[in-house]
Amino acid sequence: MFWASHVPRPKPGPDCQDFRKLNRTAAKCGVRNARDLAEFRKHTDIKLVPPGPMGVLPKVIPSDVIPSFAYGSKSRPSTPITHVIGNQYATESEEARCCKDQFMSCIRVTYKFSSKEVLCLLPGKRIRSLMMLQPQLLKHHAL
């Protein structure tokens, strides 16, 4: 036993007749039976017109033209993980805290304030007035 696989029918070429138009034209001309239709086909030649593109042509999308094109909204940049693993943020925080502690102890010694009084001085207008009193002290110490 032999199994024959499917072979698609060849597409109609330019010399094929359009049988739908041919039959419609024959009916309009008054052809009533098969013998008259065969005679009508011998004398009338209506060629098959190749069909045009169906529907709207597909739109060109940016990712087909530009390979690096990405869709969606931009997200925030990723966390610099090397800084997190390398403990850089903790080091910066410790340095800032150390500078602030030095500044507060310097104010305490210079103006003979207690720790609570220095903490009360920091917020608002009091720190600005303190800066006006001793600018050379604040040049060396950052908040």
Q: Descriptors for this entry?
A:
single chain; mainly alpha; CFAP77; rod-shaped; 143 residues
Question: If you had to describe this structure to a student in words, what would you say it looks like?
Answer:
- By secondary structure, the protein is mainly alpha-helical.
- Among the domains are: 14-50, no CATH class; 99-143, no CATH class.
- 52% of the residues lie in helices and 0% in strands.
- The chain is built from eight helices and no strands.
- It has helices at 19-28, 34-43, 62-65, 81-85, 88-111, 115-121, 125-133, 135-140.
- Helix 5 crosses helix 6.
- The longest helix has 24 residues, at 88-111.
- It starts with 18 loop residues before the first helix and ends with a helix.
- The model has no long low-confidence stretch (mean pLDDT 78).
Secondary structure blueprint with pairings:
Layout: H1 19-28, H2 34-43, H3 62-65, H4 81-85, H5 88-111, H6 115-121, H7 125-133, H8 135-140
Annotation field: number of helices: 8
Between the first and last Cα atoms, what is the distance in angstroms? Answer: 95 Å
Report the C-alpha radius of gyration, rounded.
46 Å
SS content category: mainly alpha
> Tell me about the biggest sheet?
none
Low-confidence stretches: none
Oligomer: single chain
Quick recap of the structure?
With 143 residues, this protein is mostly helical. Helix content is 52%, strand content 0%. It has eight helices and no strands.
